[in-house]
């Protein structure tokens, strides 16, 4: 224990003494702060697309994939945490995913593979959340002004303005109170979404329930892999090392407690929304569950409008927290490149570059979100391309390389099977996601008002 404490206090080896480590990845948090960060990064509004994933899988396969995703990600995140703890006990506390890849697999893995993939995933999440935030703001506006003429891109810009302010919060640890609020919000909107689905499903004039998987053979096959990519993205994190970096030394056991807190929320939210939403709408479930609450024939909501208002309000607020969490690895890179670690964090020398760089990245993300209203399809590609390797494959590979379990042992083979299986699934899901992008690109226009 004493050795781990010393390594935690002396965590900044020569390659880690930079402004990103000093100013963004501050190691001051407790295990429950870690739980707040984990919950915000995993239990996010993309869970509202789970009923849509079920429509390509059906009841048995849908629930099996949901259970399997929970089991495999909890297992892989635990292995990743144990690997980080082991290296910390040896005097090398790695604060970033790319640092782990650099030291465990080799420099090229960190620089040319893990680093770029993680940044693409994080920035993709920011763009997707900005778009979804704009859509929820528009839904709130249409409740108050049914004949309103404001366009989607205007609401995306409004959400981008909120994100522009929150992006200036200096460090990951500074988000702990916001992320506690985020945990409460995800419980609230998930409960409201499930309640609305049950209310609508029980109505005599509600949608007819049909759980048949529709489409030709090709569509069904690609739909299965697209659904798997959606579920993988929903469980995705991609920033476990950066979250563990926020823990104060000694780190032993703290991440596991945080994961237990997070997955308690995962089970409550993911399963209630997925099961209630699919039960109510069957194969008519849309990519965002909220849109099923509107009757397309009468253009009236199937539940009271205050229900819709609260769901969208809670979702908008949590989306802002999720986006800021996924900005942290990007902020870490920006601070490392632009700030001077020998100067004070809030000196003019460091504040001005920080303000300019963070603002620029948020503005660009907002422009992309407004310009590409079909970014949900691109996010499926990011899930297959990014979340699959970062959350399913690399953790077990890191564990095997670090601890070198016997090739005759159960853990070696279960890790190898997970790595091979999800590598193959990731490639197939990428093909399915690209196919869906090609199909949908024919129907969407830039800055479309959807």
TrEMBL record:
One of its GO terms (biological process) is gamma-aminobutyric acid transport. GO terms for cellular component: plasma membrane. The keyword Transmembrane applies. Residues 28-437 form the Amino acid transporter transmembrane domain. Keywords: Amino-acid transport, Membrane, Transmembrane, Transmembrane helix, Transport. Pfam families: Aa_trans (PF01490). This is Amino acid transporter transmembrane domain-containing protein. It comes from Brassica campestris (Field mustard).
């Amino acid at each position: 224990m004493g050795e781990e404490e010393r390594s935690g206090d002396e965590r900044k080896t020569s390659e880690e003494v930079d402004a990103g480590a000093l100013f963004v990845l501050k190691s001051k948090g407790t295990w429950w702060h870690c739980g707040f960060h984990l919950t915000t990064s995993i239990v996010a509004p993309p869970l509202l697309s789970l009923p849509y994933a079920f429509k390509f899988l059906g009841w048995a396969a849908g629930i099996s994939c949901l259970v399997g995703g929970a089991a495999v990600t909890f297992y892989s995140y635990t292995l990743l945490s144990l690997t980080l703890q082991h290296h910390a006990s040896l005097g090398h506390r790695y604060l970033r995913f790319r640092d782990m890849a650099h030291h465990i697999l080799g420099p090229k893995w960190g620089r040319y593979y893990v680093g770029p993939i993680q940044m693409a995933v994080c920035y993709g999440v920011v763009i997707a959340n900005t778009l979804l935030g704009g859509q929820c703001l528009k839904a709130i506006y249409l409740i108050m002004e049914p004949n309103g003429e404001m366009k989607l891109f205007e609401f995306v810009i409004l959400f981008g303005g909120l994100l522009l302010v929150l992006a200036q919060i200096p460090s990951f640890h500074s988000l702990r109170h916001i992320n506690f609020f985020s945990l409460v919000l995800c419980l609230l909107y998930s409960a409201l979404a499930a309640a609305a689905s049950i209310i609508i499903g029980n109505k005599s004039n509600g949608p007819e329930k049909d759980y048949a998987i529709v489409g030709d053979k090709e569509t069904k096959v690609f739909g299965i892999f697209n659904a798997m990519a959606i579920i993988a993205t929903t469980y995705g994190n991609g920033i476990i090392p950066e979250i563990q970096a926020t823990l104060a030394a000694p780190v032993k056991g703290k991440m596991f407690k945080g994961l237990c807190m997070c997955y308690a929320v995962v089970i409550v939210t993911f399963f209630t929304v997925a099961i209630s939403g699919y039960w109510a709408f069957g194969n008519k479930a849309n990519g965002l569950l909220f849109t099923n609450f509107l009757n397309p024939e009468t253009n009236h909501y199937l539940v009271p409008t205050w229900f819709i208002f609260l769901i969208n309000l809670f979702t908008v607020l949590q989306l802002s927290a999720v986006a800021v969490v996924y900005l942290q690895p990007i902020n870490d890179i920006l601070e490392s490149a632009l700030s001077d670690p020998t100067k004070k964090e809030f000196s003019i020398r460091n504040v001005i570059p920080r303000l300019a760089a963070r603002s620029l990245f948020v503005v660009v993300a907002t422009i992309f979100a407004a310009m590409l209203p079909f970014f949900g399809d691109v996010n499926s590609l990011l899930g297959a391309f990014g979340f699959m390797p970062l959350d399913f494959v690399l953790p077990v590979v890191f564990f095997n390389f670090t601890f070198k379990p016997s090739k005759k042992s159960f853990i070696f083979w279960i890790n190898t099977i997970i790595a091979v299986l999800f590598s193959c699934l990731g490639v197939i899901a990428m093909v399915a996601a690209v196919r869906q992008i090609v199909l949908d690109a024919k129907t969407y226009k830039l800055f479309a008002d959807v």
